[in-house]
């Protein structure tokens, strides 16, 4: 990605939203000054009126008295300690109570701004330090994360209190009235945000890294295990403790705990793709394995293991801030720091990928690295295309047979123009590293491959694959593909239930399997609400309402009863309102949940229908 495109994108996505953190304290700072000036003006106007009406004062006394009160604004007198103004201060009891509030809130808003500026400087320094080296990256993130979660909690408490105070005084000052309901709502939102933030600091997210694979014990693949140990001995790094065999389109190593089925594996784990190993010659597979062992040697996996729990905790904390409502500005500020850190993390990961490629090229050759990269990238690209095409179909599939479709269509794909776009326009999927573009990786190992060379690499038959040395390799693949394709089919069936209009009986039955007709009984006999995938009916209505016509739905309180209000589009631009009295139902929450679910299906169906019509 070019820097000229990265900088504006980072500015729009991270920096500008982060500035919202300053909005409320700045408004609070301005408002408290405005309120104080208004208070002083009202007191002075009242005093001036009294002085003007006092007939016992001559003109000189009147002017000197006015000068005194103009030189001593009420707010300064209330907040001051001058003993000569004690009598004046005692006569301003109610005024002083308000003035003190304005002063306290002014100090709070100013303190929040100072805290925000100090935090900004610190996180910028931490973010920049992360670019220096890997040790600096780790230490800077530890410091930045711990500072941010503390200041985030302080901001949540401070801004929460400020917004509740403003919810009273803004309306009271400008409209001479206040809304207890508004104050109560702001109070609840502030309390909820503070609670979520404080809980989020201490809650530890689950750290299970689950991989769909099978453990490849040494008894099932003795030759591969021996070969991996020899490679590790050559580069002088301890061998992996576990080898996993799967069907994903990638290879990786990790030192984090890995969950496989009911087992949790600790230590060094190597994941190998049986699907990809079938495409790789031994020397090409050696290049891939040496590359992965290079991550172990270079400390990449150990660094990732140390960072992973904190990154996960940070991510969980960000989600808490996002869900907190009033804490959303704090969320955007912390996301900006996370984005800055991710830039440094991405750069160091790309550097480690290139270093691992160079190490592997030294053990095998640049040609083997290049050929393996092309094969892995092409397979990943074609498999993604096959799955995307299957998922986009609007009819049920008797058998998705992804593995078979990929195997049968790979040769034609290898000779098409699409393969070059996929290879040069994407990177290999990988759960731990940010991979550089293919062109940079080929240049890094001094390899050159023309489009015709790449096609030849992809079409050449494999003379030896490590899969042939593994016991039960085909059985493992069959089990994994069977489970994967079954989940794929289930997901596609559910998506079809969201897409169908439906247009025939088969499609209707498919939709109703996921969205069956429901009935919600009322507390009184004969009262009920009926809901299906197409419409909702209520015994107090003259006719049902089509879900397609519902433009807005909300839960409202009126006259001590709860209602589900629907805005329904009629002919032309006309709209009408329909309401369901939730207080009359036995289980109103069940209706609300189901209605939101069914309305979401209807809107998804409408969007898909519109996009299909545009494509046609």
Automatic annotation (TrEMBL):
The chain crosses the membrane at residues 14-32, 108-132, 152-175, 182-202. Pfam families: Peptidase_M48. The keyword Protease applies. Residues 265-448 form the Peptidase M48 domain. Signal peptide: none annotated. It is a multi-pass membrane protein. Its cofactor is Zn(2+). The keyword Cell membrane applies. CDD domains: M48_Ste24p_like. Its main location: membrane. It is found in: Cell membrane. Gene3D superfamilies: Metalloproteases ('zincins'), catalytic domain. Keywords: Cell membrane, Hydrolase, Membrane, Metal-binding, Metalloprotease, Protease, Transmembrane, Transmembrane helix, Zinc. InterPro entries: HtpX_protease, Peptidase_M48. This is Peptidase M48. It comes from Corallococcus praedator.
